Amino acid sequence: MEENLKRLNKFIGETGYCSRREADKIIEQGRVTINGIVPELGTKVSPNDEVRIDGKLIHDRKEKPVYLAFNKPTGIECTTNLDVRYNIVDFINYPTRIFPIGRLDKASEGLIFMTNDGDIVNKILRARNNHEKEYTVTVNKLITDRFIDKMSNGIPILDTVTRKCKVEKISATTFKIILTQGLNRQIRRMCEYLGYEVTALKRIRIINISLDIPVGRYRDLTDAEIKELNELIEPSSKTEEASLPKPEAPKRRNEFIKRDDPRFKKKGDY
């Protein structure tokens, strides 16, 4: 909507980065991008646009950074497309625009971060950064020593071989696995290669944050958690090729999700 648009120099000025006059200079110098495109003077931006100066994402200082830990239920899709039934954005129903960091399969549950901070998304998602993600997995038959050994040392899937990882047997049909990469449906594909079917999959940790909330609930990360997380990901590269998810254009469907669905919980109801 027109009333939500701001001239680019005004937007930059309101972030505290520099004055509007100085903003005009850096726009003319080609140092500013909007959604990856170098704009002209006088261009207007919306709250959903990604504005960068010298490659660094800048935020409206009126918008407080949001960092949430969410325990995603099964059946919820990690998409910002509001046309998708049971999408994660509608499920959480947060008052400001946020998006997930990475993905968790619709059939899986567990920890996922939600944020409005594109820089932290870039750092966490870059595969070369080797950030740990821990899961508990239940399969359809008895786990053998061979299964643990094969899973630990690499499985050929998706035209590559998975990185060596830590795998520990918990019970006859349940194991724990710590990955440092995120191939599509990686754990399920690894198990399938060895003749096993995953019957339940839960992510219980991302880097330094462990799952400690009920299914369907979320909480803010504490200042201490955010500080430690930033310290752990600080060596990570921030580049334009990083896997920053571009939120799909919000499209409202005619049939909204029914809030009396028992899977849906009120925001903040712990």
TrEMBL record:
Q: Name one Pfam family in it.
A: S4
* Biased segments, Basic and acidic residues type: 237-270
Which key words are in the record? Isomerase, RNA-binding
Record-linked SMART domains: S4 (SM00363)
CDD domains named among the record's database cross-references: PseudoU_synth_RluF, S4
User: Per the database record, which ranges form the RNA-binding S4 domain?
Assistant: 6-72
What InterPro entries does the record tag this protein with? PsdUridine_s_RsuA/RluB/E/F_cat, PsdUridine_synth_cat_dom_sf, PsdUridine_synth_RsuA/RluA, PsdUridine_synth_RsuA/RluB/E/F, PsdUridine_synth_RsuA/RluB_CS, RsuA_PseudoU_synthase, S4_RNA-bd, S4_RNA-bd_sf
Question: In terms of domain of life, where is this protein from?
Answer: Bacteria
Record PROSITE patterns:
PSI_RSU, S4
Gene3D superfamilies of this UniProt entry? Alpha-L RNA-binding motif, Pseudouridine synthase I, catalytic domain, N-terminal subdomain, RNA-binding S4 domain
Q: Which family does it belong to?
A: Belongs to the pseudouridine synthase RsuA family.
- Supply the name of the protein: Pseudouridine synthase
